[in-house]
Amino acid sequence: MASSSAGIVTGLVAAAFVTIGVLAHQASVTAPADLGPAHATVSPAPGAVKAPRDRRHPDALPAGSGTGERVVYSVDDDRVWLVGPGNKVRHTFAVTPGSVDPAPGAYTVTSRSSRITGSDGVLVEHVVRFTSAGGVAVGFSAAVDDAAAKPDPDRPTGGIRESRADGDAMWEFATIGRPVVVVR
């Protein structure tokens, strides 16, 4: 019986070391430098630098927003870019943010819903979520009645509203796992 107990303890110790090794590896993995750090806080870091813009082309993709196929969202410009192969902008459009902004950084699309009631009580469609901030889910959506969003500053909402046409484009493009880059 004593050797059986020793074998169990040895097995548990070995399993603990494997678990620690896996966790240490996960903690050391980071997003590519060109996408910036991953964050999920309520507001951008104080003094965060705004991504440079082409003043002659205000709708141009922000410099420093990464490479490859991705969604780029500027919290300062209230604009989204859907970037396809070859770093080519497939579609860009203005949005109306909720009262909670995601921090600048790299994220991925984590869930989608075809139609739900938003946190503000509005029926929305083509919901594409990519993070949470302050306990509030943050993602893109379009009001089914295509009404302009009027966020209540006293109520934390993470819905970034787009028109129904832009919501259709987002829904087609932003599948689960698609990178989302948030810039100032």
Description:
This is L,D-transpeptidase. There is one protein chain. This protein is 20% helix and 30% strand. The protein is an alpha+beta fold. The chain has one domain: Beta Barrel (L,D-transpeptidase catalytic domain-like). The protein has a five-stranded mixed β-sheet, with helices on one face. A four-stranded mixed β-sheet has the order 5-6-7-8, with helices on one face. The N and C termini lie far apart (64 Å). About 23% of the residues have low confidence.
Radius of gyration over alpha carbons?
21 Å
* Helix fraction bin: 10-25%
* CATH top level class name: Mainly Beta
Q: Please, how many domains?
A: 1
Determine the CATH superfamily.
Answer: L,D-transpeptidase catalytic domain-like
Major sheet attributes: 5 strands, mixed
The CATH topology label is L,D-transpeptidase catalytic domain-like
CATH architecture assignment: Beta Barrel
The spatial strand order of the largest sheet comes to: 3-2-1-9-4
Any low-confidence stretches, pLDDT <50, length ≥5? Answer: 7-49
Overall pLDDT: 78
Report the strand count: 9
Short description:
The chain has helices spanning 2-28, 164-173; strands at 70-74, 79-83, 89-94, 105-108, 111-117, 123-133, 136-143, 159-162, 179-183.
